[in-house]
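Customer escalation, tier 2.

The customer says the design service returned an amino acid string that "doesn't look like it belongs to this structure." They asked us to rerun it and document both sides in this ticket. The original structure tokens are below, unchanged.
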């Protein structure tokens, strides 16, 4: 990597993305570059203040298109991956809900989780040919044996609080969102547009949400000796699940911390179409897909295909009892050669020693050698972003907006420089990297990493 080359790594959801991008930033600094890592909102509003670099966007939605245009106008090269590109329903539904044609064709490079993700982009009817490389994602690196020790203290704390348990992970943020105005699936249900696959997807998701809401208390009633921890999606309304679990001493609801620690602490996972099943597979934890309703068009195939399936409560209770009795034996049954083949197609580097972060740093290092975008830095961008910062101050007081202060604090709780430095020391120790990169806090929740 060119000395001083800058990578800009915005994170929307701290518990899902920050540790992984901190790892990517550390390897960038270890290679001689500079990384700016932190909360997406303040980073996007400060793009004109950073030296020209490579902006790594996190989604291919229409909303991302505007941020990419601003990044380019501030002189940055643009690279994209999709944090939700690992798990999706049919290509048609994924394209309709997660892929904007202009955004798909905007970057200089698209980084895919694996070949399946790369192919669904190539197959998009509006794909115009930007380079696609299946390099993986730093989130998968945290699950490798080399880095699992990062979560030892958190795993110990979870086990001290909850003992042995089965994790129930939910992913119903679009019907049970923390901010009611963001319940998009309910909006699609009301519209009932026959030409729009989002309506059918929403109906299927809502049916699953109701099934999970009924399943939790019934399972707790049938298996009183088993403790269950319900972990809602970070954007979900936690109180909904607390109401569902009310009255059961063997059910807890927890939404904090990285899911990796919760998976490592558990005896197994219950889900439907959730990315955590892929993560559980990488951590050698059994995953049970509760599938009381099925749809070839709307189910998320990857996590369900690599999991043990339960069509009803009887089957689910039987698998939970087996996970509680011998988690390793149940995972051995789940993780056959067919499942591992599916994982290799979905996740670049699955089962290999190298890290996705190492591959990404090497590839972006090549891109950085091309320098900045000549003549692309708009002199008007500082004023435009100053206006957007003022607008954000107003929206922070308005419930339901994407900038509402309590919502942003929920999605990205504050982290200070000392915590970042401690995480970097642990990561560096796991990977035998010395010296540890220097850290400087640029503003709240935004950090600059550079060579020591």
């Amino acid at each position: 990597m060119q000395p001083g080359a800058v990578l800009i790594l915005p994170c929307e959801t701290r518990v899902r993305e920050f540790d992984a991008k901190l790892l990517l930033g550390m390897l960038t600094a270890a290679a001689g570059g500079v990384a700016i890592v932190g909360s997406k909102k303040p980073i996007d509003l400060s793009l004109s203040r950073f030296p020209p670099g490579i902006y790594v966007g996190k989604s291919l939605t229409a909303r991302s298109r505007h941020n990419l245009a601003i990044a380019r106008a501030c002189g940055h090269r643009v690279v994209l991956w999709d944090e939700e590109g690992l798990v999706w329903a049919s290509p048609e539904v994924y394209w309709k809900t997660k892929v904007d044609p202009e955004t798909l064709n905007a970057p200089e490079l698209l980084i895919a989780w694996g070949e399946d993700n790369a192919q669904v982009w190539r197959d998009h009817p509006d794909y115009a040919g930007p380079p696609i490389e299946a390099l993986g994602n730093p989130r998968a690196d945290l699950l490798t044996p080399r880095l699992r020790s990062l979560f030892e203290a958190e795993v110990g704390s979870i086990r001290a609080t909850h003992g042995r348990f089965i994790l129930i992970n939910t992913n119903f943020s679009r019907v049970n969102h923390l901010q009611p105005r963001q319940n998009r699936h309910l909006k699609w249900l009301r519209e009932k547009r026959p030409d729009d696959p989002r309506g059918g997807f929403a109906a299927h998701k809502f049916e699953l949400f109701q099934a999970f809401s009924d399943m939790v208390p019934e399972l707790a009633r049938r298996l009183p000796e088993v403790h269950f921890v319900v972990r809602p999606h970070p954007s979900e309304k936690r109180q909904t699940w607390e109401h569902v679990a009310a009255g059961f001493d063997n059910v807890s609801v927890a939404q904090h911390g990285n899911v990796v620690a919760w998976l490592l602490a558990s005896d197994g996972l219950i889900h439907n179409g959730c990315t955590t099943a892929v993560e559980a597979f990488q951590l050698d934890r059994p995953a049970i897909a509760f599938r009381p309703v099925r749809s070839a068009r709307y189910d998320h195939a990857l996590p369900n295909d690599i999991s043990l399936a339960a069509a009803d409560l009887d089957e689910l209770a039987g698998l939970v009892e087996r996970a509680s009795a011998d988690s390793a034996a149940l995972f051995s049954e789940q993780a056959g050669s067919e499942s591992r083949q599916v994982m290799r197609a979905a996740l670049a580097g699955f089962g290999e020693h190298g890290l996705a972060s190492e591959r990404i740093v090497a590839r972006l290092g090549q891109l950085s050698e091309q320098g900045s975008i000549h003549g692309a830095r708009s002199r008007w961008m500082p004023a435009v972003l100053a206006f957007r910062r003022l607008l954000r101050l107003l929206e922070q007081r308005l419930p339901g907006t994407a900038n509402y202060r309590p919502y942003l604090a929920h999605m990205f709780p504050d982290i200070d420089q000392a915590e970042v430095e401690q995480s970097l020391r642990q990561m560096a120790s796991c990977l035998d990297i010395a010296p540890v990169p220097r850290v400087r806090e640029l503003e709240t929740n935004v950090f600059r990493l550079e060579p020591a």
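Tier 2 assessment: The sequence is consistent with the input. The longest strand covers residues 6-11. The first helix runs from residue 14 to 30. Sent an explanation to the customer and offered a walkthrough call.
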